[in-house]
Amino acid sequence: MHNQGLGSWIHRRRIKSADQTALISGDDRLSYGEFAERVDRLANAFDARGIRSGDRVAYLGENHPAFLETLFACGVLGAIFVPLNTRLAVPEIAFALIDSGSRILVHAASLTDVAERGSQGTQVVKRIRVADAAAPVADNAAEGFEEVMASAPATHRDENVTLDDPALILYTSGTTGQPKGALLTHGNMTWNSFNVLVDYDFVSSDVALMIAPMFHVASLGMGVLPTLLKGGSVVLEPRFDPGRTLHLIEKHHATAISGVPTTYQLLCEHPDWETTDISSLQKLTCGGSAVPVRVLEAYEKRGLSFSGGYGMTETAPGATSLAPAKSREKAGSAGLPHFFTDVRIVDETGSEVAPGQVGEIQISGPNVIREYWNRAEASADSYAGNVWFRSGDMGHTDEHGYLFISDRLKDMIISGGENIYPAEIELVISELEAVSSVAVIGVPDEKWGEVPCAVVTVRDGFTLEPDDIQTHLQGRLARYKIPKRVVIIAEMPRTASGKIRKADLRRVHAVS
User: Fold this and answer.
1) Do 167 and 81 form a contact (C-beta atoms < 8 A)?
2) What is each CA distance from 371 to 85, 187, 195, 393, 483, in whole angstroms?
3) How far apart, in whole angstroms, are the C-alpha atoms of residue 105 and residue 95?
4) Average pLDDT of the chain to the nearest whole number
5) Which helix (H) or strand (E) holds 506?
6) What is the mean pLDDT of residues 389-410?
7) Where are the beta strands (DSSP E) in 131-226?
């Protein structure tokens, strides 16, 4: 085949396992043979609508087979797939569409209003609407997804696409300014999948339940693509609900799920946790932050352990992984570098530091992006020696090379000349059984410049006072690390992937 990229994967799978179930969505199932035919039809339909190699096609919607059909159809043509966060406001959607130069926007019917308004004044020349469970929305300006699919032949195309060609543009959160589009190549996504297969032992019999949105690279790169590469089955769920997730694990005999610590906490705290048959589960991957000990214990009682890890959009996304067998011995660690990836810790001069010393985490490997879309300056500033990607995260390794994340460089608190890493404080606060979630931020202080402030939510059925947290921290942390203020709130602001939006907390609580 001439196509060496993602666009060839489903066709290659059709050759090897046409009758094996590829996708499950609600009551619908697609075999690899059926999946491949739909991808080919959509690729030909895009071609008939003027999409060529290098053109951009955006997608706005929750987890749905159409997301993956659009991704792989773009890969067949050598076009670039641009998945958009469904939580974006209209101006943010417009920014991503203009910045990427997307020509087609495929979107869920339930998001017609924001899709229509967000695409006005952009280079989008056609919208394609995907029917979903929402009430029908009148939209005469868009074509129906199934109608577009049916309009084209199922002839397979074999375009010349290399591993160095761009596959996706994924926009970063933009917490430090305008969002940047991370330009991920077919090679980045392929090598990341190889890392997952090697370090997490995915097999063709795996059934991966996707409860995190695929427009985030963690769900796509650490779950969906490795499973499809191996010929396993992917269960697509539009949004996370703990009770329904437990039901789906039992119904489909799911072997793999992934999420952030909050995901797993909500599952084990659900009333159906003890009575649900989860014996099929074998792989639980978790990223974003360390898993609280009480959550580890809840899963260990069911015979399960976590694979931890660290990564980011720019590494497609895996950089390190922690094997389940080490989840206790190396609690709090993000693990060792993935098999085909290298990680180092450097000081402000760019020199590597000794184990135990905190510095910036830098990453190198075939899964790491080489550039941002139309951001030459940002691309140049993101690399050391044109080899090592500068993560902006702080961390250290132990004597065995295991990585421990201190915090985001931008989240680090400098108090009276001392560097304070919020993640360290959060881990100790999360030991309290009453704590549901915690985020530590820096707030202005006349004497010290800034001091830590802990923002906490409390578990249902528990009570907690700010003084309880202060008392718990005494003797466990240096005095300058203990938050000078504790704020208890009803609900944490979170991203679609479940991560706490610290920027929102700073805007509300960072007052002197």
Assistant:
1) yes
2) 21, 14, 21, 18, 38
3) 13
4) 92
5) helix 502-509
6) 89
7) 142-144, 166-171, 181-185, 207-210
d(CA 497, CA 215): 9
Q: And the tokens for 438?
A: 């915690």
Residue in the structure block whose two tokens are 């099929």 = 280
Placement of tokens 């491949």 in the chain: 36
Which tokens in the block code for residue 402?
């295991």
What values do phi and psi take at 472, rounded to 5?
-60, -35
Query: What residue spans of 101-185 are helical by DSSP H?
Result: 112-119, 145-150
N- to C-terminal Cα separation, the chain: 63
Nearest to 343, CA basis, from 266, 402, 425? 402
At 107, list the tokens. 């979107």
DSSP 223: I
Inter-CA distances, 251 with 268, 305, 323, 508, Å: 18, 21, 27, 42
Q: Is there a contact between 6 and 167 (Cβ–Cβ < 8 Å)? A: yes
Q: Are 318 and 223 in contact (CB under 8 A)?
A: no
**Beta carbons of 225 and 193 less than 8 angstroms apart:** yes
Rounded distance, CA 144 to CA 151, Å? Answer: 11
CB atoms within 10 A of CB 370: 17
Q: Which helix (H) or strand (E) holds 108?
A: strand 104-108
- Amino acid symbol at 124: V
Element (H, E) at 191: helix 186-200
Distance CA 392, CA 205 (A): 38
**Token pair 């330009």: residue:** 183
Distance between CA atoms of 308 and 46, rounded to whole angstroms? 39
Q: Model confidence over 98-116: pLDDT tens digits?
A: 999 999 999 999 999 999 9
- Kindly write down the DSSP assignment for every residue of 444-512, as one continuous string: EETTTEEEEEEEEEE-TT----HHHHHHHHBTTB-GGGS-SEEEE-S---B-TTS-B-HHHHHHHH---
pLDDT digits (tens, 9 = 90+) for 131-163: 986 645 567 789 999 999 999 999 999 999 999
- Which ranges of 78-185 would DSSP assign to H, the alpha helix? 90-100, 112-119, 145-150
Distance CA 181, CA 440 (A): 28
Return all residues near 471 (Cβ < 8 A) that are at least 6 apart: none
The 3-state DSSP class for residue 168 equals strand
Looking at residue 343, its amino acid is V
- Tell me the C-alpha distance between 92 and 456, whole Å: 29
- Angle formed at CA 261 by CA 253 and CA 410, multiple of 5 degrees: 145
pTM across the whole model:
0.85
How do residues 63-95 score in pLDDT, each as one tens digit? 999 999 999 999 999 999 999 989 888 888 999
Closest to 23 (Cα-Cα) out of 175, 258, 207, 188: 207
